[in-house]
Amino acid sequence: MRPRCGRTPRRSRVTARNRLPLDYSVRSLRVVDFLIDGLRKGGADQDRARDTLCGLGAYVGEVLVRRAGAAWVDLDAGQRAVLGQPVGVRMPDGRIWNPLGKVLNRFEAGGPDESLQTFYLTLHGRSQRPAA
Question: What pTM value is reported for the model?
Answer without folding.
Answer: 0.82
